[in-house]
Prior knowledge:
The structure is a single chain. With 361 residues, the protein is of the alpha/beta class. It is elongated, with a radius of gyration of 30 Å. It has helices at residues 2-16, 70-84, 100-103, 109-116, 126-139, 142-159, 162-171, 186-196, 199-212, 216-229, 232-255, 262-297, 308-312, 322-333, 335-338, 343-353, and strands spanning 19-27, 33-43, 54-65, 91-96, 121-124. Strand 1 (19-27) and strand 2 form a beta hairpin. Helices cover 60% and strands 12% of the residues. Helix 9 packs antiparallel against helix 10.
Amino acid sequence: MANEIKQKIIRNIQSAKYFTIIIDFTPDIGHSEQLAILLRIVHMDEENEYSTPTIQEYFLDFITVDSTTGLNLSDVLMKQLKLYKINIENCRGRAYDNGSNMTGRYQGVQTRILNINSRAFFTPCAAHNLNLVLCDAAKNSTIAITFFGVVQRVYTLFSASTCRWSIIKKHCTVFMIKQWSETRWESHMNSVKAMRFQLSSILNALEEVSETANDLMARSEAVSLSNEIGNYEFILSLVIWYDILTEINIVSKSTQDHNMDINTSVKMVQSLIQFLQQYREDGFNLAKIAATKLAEDADIAVAFKNPRLKLIKTYLRNRLGQDKLSELALISIEKEVSSTIDYKNLIDTFASKKSRKKMFS
Length: 361
């Protein structure tokens, strides 16, 4: 039956003549790379000449690939098209992600196919572009890296044991904690969402694990995560990232809709840019209000950690006396006041106190 369906699809493609290739690959549960091949055509109803042309997208195959290099993927694609008896010269468009093996200027799939057919126009995946921007932005922030690391650790702790998983299910009745994917940032939104709206429940679940788990390492990790999550800075990051990822997810989902046109897609991306620019102006203050309420509901102190103490009293300066420590802290924290002091008089006073009793000629 599958063969008959495939043959009918191939006949439709051959009848339309011109087509667009869409390919992507992903690892399956057996850790094998599966290459998905889809073709898109403008379908004309030959039996009704007055019918409106429609865009049809057909799935053809999953192909197991041993190598994901541009050369191997190009060879596999060409081999499959030849098997389908579909002429690559009739290809007028190609769409795939922005991985270097796909879009590489010299060795990528898009370059190799272009050398065969110069009319096979390549369009990168807009949703994947958005993912790449997010990945690069987040990797440049140690706060973001730490934040998502903590979110992942929460999932890892509870998912590693059926007993601990039953504990989190008991406490989180609205949204279940999720594992996030490195390449699909919409999965980050689901992970953050579960914590954003169930913070107290997750803290209670961690407390139960720390008190009842037989695994000492799990108990230690639960205590550590409670301390990480139970501070105002983490909660503020939770609110900020949920706000940002929610807007990004809307655009990401929309750009993957098969009915999406390029004009609407461009407008949505521009709206997202405007949102992010506006969020930089007033989003932090709004996030602080939401984070404060969330912290108060969870009985967490609304206060930032003071990083200046770490800057002043580091390991190498650990022998500082308490008076000097306080004085240096005062100078560092009260910069605005210190900038108004007349340093000339201060220097003269210091010089007079430290002046030598014996003058040298």
